[in-house]
């Protein structure tokens, strides 16, 4: 049964400062929304509790892509279509537009934002594995100022993030220093489009004379949050790519992940597929 629309209040201030002040004055009352794609699903299903909502949609202070010689900063209000259409992101950070292309339909990509995808904190979200592989940082803002933390520290537990009640996610920053890295991203779902992932892996690695000298692996649907597979990375670092190394990495991945059984898949299937995806990537090195 659809939720009763009269039970919600929506305000849409025209500046970031005004929104931050609203959150500071009533941090437990107003819920920020951006594209609203997740909210509309809950509304249509009758699962959205009565709320006071503050809109971030199309706010210029949050919808931007800034390129410097060393990094690219993406505003939290940037849509997936914006990301897919940006030439430098497409050429240098190809995992991210690929992940963006998985996010629902074209209509969803026109409306959904990267910040909303992150803050919604689904373990199966499409953009987090790529952001984890790229070792992104996130900047959080409030009336007290800003702070920047590694994205790998943003998700604390299921649907719980490092955001304080009066904070907003402002931007995501990724390094452009990726010369010599090979990249990999793969999502396994029920369909090729408009499907929530059963499991997804994104990875980057650089080798020197057959030895892995740098590697980062991000995953979806393998833990209660999007996850950086640190133990798996450590098992591979400074190792040659051999059958024995790959076998050890598969074991490390299975040891550090905790997939679940749910309506979309089983824990056993997710673990087996994730290990296979890891091996598929390592074979390319």
TrEMBL record:
Species annotation: Tunturiibacter empetritectus
Name recorded for this polypeptide: CO/xanthine dehydrogenase FAD-binding subunit
Leader peptide range in chain numbering: none
Alphabetized InterPro entries for the sequence: CO_DH_flav_C, CO_DH_flav_C_dom_sf, Diverse_Substr_Oxidored, FAD-bd_PCMH, FAD-bd_PCMH-like_sf, FAD-bd_PCMH_sub1, FAD-bd_PCMH_sub2, Mopterin_DH_FAD-bd
Superkingdom of origin organism: Bacteria
Any one GO molecular function term: oxidoreductase activity
Boundaries of every FAD-binding PCMH-type domain copy: 1-179
Gene3D superfamilies xref list: 3.30.465.10, CO dehydrogenase flavoprotein, C-terminal domain, Uridine Diphospho-n-acetylenolpyruvylglucosamine Reductase, domain 2
Keyword terms: FAD, Flavoprotein, Oxidoreductase
Name of one Pfam family that matches: FAD_binding_5
